[in-house]
Amino acid sequence: MTVKNTETQAIALLLTGRLAETGEKLAALAREYPEAQFETAPAAGARTFGDVLRHVAFWNLYLAETVRGKKADGAANELPKSEYGTKVLAIRGLTESTNDAVGALRELKNGLDAEKAAQAEGIVEHVCEHYGQLAVYARLAGVVPPASRS
Q1: d(Cα 32, Cα 94) in Å, to the nearest integer?
Q2: Secondary structure (DSSP) of 70-111
Q3: CA dist list (Å): 37 to 41, 106, 130
């Protein structure tokens, strides 16, 4: 095993762990969010909590497809509400898509090349950005995010 191979495997391990961690953190927050407010936007022009989860899940699946070498289409920008329109289904979509993306990264036995590492890092950043957004939604709904509890 070369040093470069070891480095790409280490990067893959780091990003895979971070993606799994951030996905679970977002799912935990979603489980705490009031179901009655799940499809209500907190302000005009803002996405609902469910919309954001479907959006994050879509891009997780996009990462899984591209890492596997498939051509993915990003036009939809979120999972269809017709299939993931309830709290339970949206959380399931998020969880399954996180697991799929993590699985795709783990399938890369030689680690991540620079392009795939950048894609994975971008998705981790994307999940974190939306976690912050939804943490504010949660606070507005009177929910202290699980990760913020002492």
Answers
A1: 15
A2: -----SS-S--TTTS-SHHHHHHHHHHHHHHHHHHHHT-TT-
A3: 8, 36, 17
State the sign of the Cα–Cα–Cα–Cα dihedral 43, 48, 49, 52.
negative
Percentage of the chain lying above the pLDDT 70 cut: 97
CA pseudo-torsion sign 55, 63, 84, 20: negative
Tokens of 113: 């090349």
Write down the domain spans for the chain.
Answer: 3-148
Task: Give the predicted TM-score (pTM) of the model.
Answer: 0.94
Between the alpha carbon of residue 131 and those of residues 2, 41, 66, the distances in Å are 37, 16, 23
Question: What is the CATH architecture of 3-148?
Answer: Up-down Bundle (1.20)
Closest CA to 105 of 94, 93, 115, 120: 120
Contact 19, 123 (CB under 8 A): yes
Average per-residue pLDDT for the chain: 93
